[in-house]
Amino acid sequence: MSHRRLPVSGRNRVVTVGVCAMDKKTRSSAMKEILTRVEAFGEFQIVIFGDNCILNQPVEEWPKVDALISFYSNGFPLQKAEQYEALHKPFVVNKLSEQWTLLDRRLVYKRLQEHDIPVPNHLVVNRNDYIKKGELRKKPKGDEVALPDQPTFEPIGFDQDEAYVELNGKRIYKPFVEKPANAEDHNIFIYYPHNVGGGYKRLFRKIGNQSSQYYPPPEVTDTNQVIYTPVRQTTSFIYEDFMSTNGTDVKVYTVGPDYAHAEARKSPVVDGRVQRDESGKEVRYPILLTPEEKEIARRVCLAFGQHVCGFDLLRTKGRSYVCDVNGWSFVKNSKKVLR
Fold first, then answer.
1. How far apart are CA 267 and CA 274, in angstroms?
2. pLDDT digits (tens, 9 = 90+) for 41-92
3. Residue spans of alpha helices (H) in the chain
4. DSSP readout, 25-44?
5. Structural Rg of the chain based on CA atoms
6. 96-113 pLDDT, tens per residue?
7. What whole-number distance in Å separates Cα of residue 333 and Cα of residue 312?
């Protein structure tokens, strides 16, 4: 978080809080409820910048505010928001410069390890460079993406077999998880060993009631044909041990380093079907974090400078591991977190 202090509120002093994010996020029901609660204090005035301002106007014409809520989503001009921060130096809730790191899963894992935060055993297979500040490439439709679509070089020392992937002598055995380095790419694959049927499962963002799909191994029609599904080689990937979590995913949400809320949901790995309640919302239920997990939440919050932050936790064999960090995240149905 920026170390600039907010102005001291006097009897007539109102603190202006700017919300600089894409309209799809700022106009969501969760954000509206947060902002309504902030305004209810009577000491804050909310200023929503809006897509037209953010995308089409120079930062010199953006509203000047005392405090800034700003976070990346598809199409958001992150570098432009940094220019605004440098110009007006508002109090920043989620550090903008660190949001570049969140766009590259390789850098996320590197940062987690630097702060002694446990992550799954993994390999990083590079085929393009780490994301660099200010170098988001635009697709034809205008969305900003973190990494090139195509590899720019081939990894040295990489090999694969029916049972494993290998890099410079280190192996990750099936079942393993394959994650694109680009954190905006949610097509994650799980490859299975031959003794449980082989093939792979693709995880993706929910489409209706589905969040994953299984694909069997190729049928062998030629004696020279590979009898297993080869891993993707289209970009940089992280390969990590698949960890059994008894069919449950844990999502953790921080509000500053000293508060964390956690929810569990059915893992998409189970059968790919989204579990919903009577109102059609995905079933999630609050869970208690252990003291060790609370310390993990504190470290994640501080490591990335994201005071409002969400991350994924894997619980397995009595230990917990962080496998993804999302930055600003909304809790769907928790009045306690909103308060």
1. 9
2. 899 999 999 999 999 999 999 999 999 999 999 999 999 999 999 999 999 9
3. 23-26, 29-39, 51-56, 78-88, 105-114, 291-304, 335-338
4. HHTSHHHHHHHHHHHTTSSE
5. 22
6. 999 999 999 999 999 999
7. 18
